[in-house]
Design goal:
- By secondary structure, this protein is α/β, with parallel strands linked by helices.
- The chain folds into 2 domains: about 200 residues, Quinone Oxidoreductase, Chain A, domain 1, CATH 3.90.180.10; about 130 residues, Rossmann fold (3-Layer(aba) Sandwich), CATH 3.40.50.
- Helix content is about 25%, strand content about 25%.
- Strands 3, 5, 6, 7, 8, 15 and 16 form a 7-stranded mixed beta sheet that branches.
- Helix 5 crosses helix 6.
Amino acid sequence: MLAVRSHAAGEPLRLEEVPLPEPAGTEIRVRVAGCGVCHTDLHIARTNRLRVERPITLGHEIAGWIDASGPGAAAELRRARLHDGDAVVIFGGWGCGICAQCVAGDEQRCDAGTSPGFQRDGGYAEYLLVPSARPLVPIGEFDPVEAAPLADAGVTPWRAVQRATPWLVPDARVLLIGLGGLGQFALQYLRRIPELTIAVRELSPDKLALADELGADLGLLDGDESLVALGLGGPADVVFDFVGNDSTLDYAVRNVAPGGLVSMVGEAGGRFEFSFDHVPVEASITTTAWGSLADLREVVRLARRGRMRWTVERMALRDAAAAHDRLAEGRVAGRIVLVPSSG
């Protein structure tokens, strides 16, 4: 089968012929319908990341069809009411199943966990192996290519917004940095909460026009920082940073209110000064990565009911390198989804 693999940070991606994986034990083989191209994939391919084990098949935003299963998978498939050929979205936080985080339903926090495209081969391929039936979320008749972005672009901002609930009270001021694949979902989730004032900060006028369509109250081009307090009526009670580089994190910290929240979601590797002189008093700083399996099930439910909108652009698997270049250059309106020739 074909797979797009990273052998070393900064080296060109390689389209390779690799053996078809055979499921053993409780493993499930999924035929990939599509895999979203995320900025995290770009960072993995082009920089050193300690959580990544190479060589690796990239891709963690995956949907497809159950294709085969190991001899120990039958009981769990029956409990999940899943069968060969069923369309599924793959939850990416594969925990150990026995630690406190996993038992609490937060497998994505498991210290011993693995994830596709990080420590296990991912979805830039025609097939991949999933450790068991548990990470498979059925999507019924929903197009799995369209559903693939829900596995990260959909669920991660859902998690970030849910964790920010104590700050998202009536009349709260919200600043959202970056309206890429995740930011577009986040804005729609936030707009479901009544009486928020929401500003979006972007580099692209086109994305600010989209922010207006999705319900933002204020659009800020890069450099309009003086308009944050003016447009929102004060510093933001919550800042969601969906970029996460040095510049955006510094911007987030400068524009959050005392006692407010900065939620770092983008993984661009940024850093900022953490001190009494730089961070507003009693402001909270947090990160969000993935969401829980329960979060993904809820996002899929909303998507199947038509409660969200997002844009998918299909590209061939063999064009993964070109997809990365476009993402790096900011020439992606929604989400590129790589589609294998077998799909």
